[in-house]
Amino acid sequence: QPQVQRRLPQQEEPADSELAQALRNCLERSRSAEEVQSILTSARSSPSHLGCIVCETIVAATSFSAHLMSAAHLQKLIPGRRAVVQEWPGILNLDHVTLRFEIVPPSKDADRETDLVWQEYLDPTTSRPWWWCEELQEHRFDRPVGKKIVKVWG
Fold it and tell me: What gap in Å lies between CA 79 and CA 110, rounded to an integer?
């Protein structure tokens, strides 16, 4: 009696599920957030806080990567927006949407930047400080390290 071979239907390689892709993206974002925190904290002399331009808040430096991954932070990013870039001059530029970043070497004008005067203000709604440089027409939520600061409140 001849043996009958049963052929099983050929199974295709399973395509990446949306969940698997989302998990990979989350892990990639988490690693990037931790790397950004590491670069920023090692580039500054003992930073205690870092500013976030998306949330317009100041976050403890040791929890900045957790903040970047938090639901509160992610909800403030506009869906479909291509980029929200925050710059830390002479350190790095960070796109909050993708969490991609580029290392930025110190500028040739670094000496000139140390001569700039930053005014420190207190946000009445959050009671947190922020800084303004009239010459640059620029505000920051992270303290300008190594710069001349004039307290405008209290």
Answer: 36
